[in-house]
Amino acid sequence: MNGILNILKPPGMTSHDVVSVVRKKLNMKKVGHTGTLDPNAAGVLPICIGQATKISQFLLDGKKKYRAELTLGIETNTEDIDGEILRQREVTSSPDEIREAVLSFIGEYKQIPPMYSAIKIKGKKLYELARQGVEIERAERTVTIYHIEIIEIFKEKVIFDVLCSKGTYIRTLCKDIGEVLGCGGVMSFLLRTASSDFSLDTAITIEELQALENVEDILLPMDYPLQHMSKAIVKSAYSKQVLNGNRIYSNYLIDTIHEPIGQEVCVYLEKEFVGFGIVRNEDHNQKYIKILRLLFEKE
Asked: Which terms does the record give in the GO molecular function aspect?
């Protein structure tokens, strides 16, 4: 079984908990998620099954969309409402000032990841160090906030939708907004509404998954989130060359290579998605596709 499940992770479960449920349901070991959601957050969590685990990096690289609630006037050690309160301050900013501060983060900005995160430094996850009372210096990361829509501002609460790049911590965004306003802030609610091409309206709950007799009925194809990529469709006569990882020349293809040098493409054998390649150029200016990753072994 190979494909992707769009799971609605409930609050109270870790992303790995969801993977464990799917493994048990399918009686398969080759199962993985595509981007950690905080245990207390809910939302879209694509789960890769079988050979689809080999494309998880492409899903990790995709944009994410969230609905979040920011509570101003509080600072905690975890940057969310569940952490130990470090400081409380009065919120004196007007709704217009709050709106301006929130929207000022649209674009690229440098974030310092929270200590309570799964990032590894020298082989140790930061949250493991944080639980031991150890805090270490973290390097800034450039993240991109593509869009923010403010849904409501009510006293110290701000509800907003945000579209952002991979690796963006919404907890840290909330903390940073609070710092700009001079009163501190924490994330008090988080729902991931989209991850790459997977959205909330097509996600299934754990309960719905457990009730299914045939999971393959809802399994999405491996290339479902890759529709934005160009396709290189290889003629069946050249299947051996592809599965051996050899170069793919234009005459191997149903159509010629139109893509520019350096562009990654999805490689198909007729209708079957078999891997990824990148367009390269030989010394005599003949384009070819170099195989980057095969999803299936040669039989």
From this structure: RNA binding; tRNA pseudouridine(55) synthase activity
> In whole angstroms, what is the distance from residue 72 CA to residue 102 CA?
12
Residue 157 has pLDDT above 80, yes or no: yes
CB 187 within 8 A of CB 70: yes
Q: List, by residue number, the catalytic residues.
A: 38
Half-sphere exposure of 154 (CA within 13 A, CB side): 5
Q: Residue 247 is encoded by which pair of tokens?
A: 């170069």
Half-sphere exposure of 62 (CA within 13 A, CB side): 25
> What pTM does this model have?
0.86
- At the topology level of CATH, where does 3-61+197-217 sit? Pseudouridine synthase (3.30.2350)
Residue 181 has, within 13 A of its CA and on its CB side, a CA count of 35
- Phi, psi at 41, each rounded to 5°: -90, 160
Q: What angle do CA 33, 37, 38 make, to 5 degrees?
A: 140
pLDDT in tens, 119-139: 777 667 777 666 777 677 777
Where do you find CATH 3.30.2350.10 in the chain? 3-61+197-217, 64-195
Residue 16, CB-side half-sphere exposure with 13 Å CA sphere: 1
| Residue 298 dihedral angles phi and psi, to the nearest 5° | -65, 135
Report d(CA 266, CA 253) in Å as an integer. Answer: 13
Q: What is the pLDDT of residues 56-76, one digit of tens each?
A: 877 777 899 999 999 999 999
Give the residue, 81 or 139, on which the prediction is more confident: 81
CA dihedral angle for residue 68, residue 8, residue 164, residue 137, rounded to 10 degrees: 80
Enter the CATH code of domain 229-294: 2.30.130.10
Closest CA to 205 of 45, 40, 65: 45
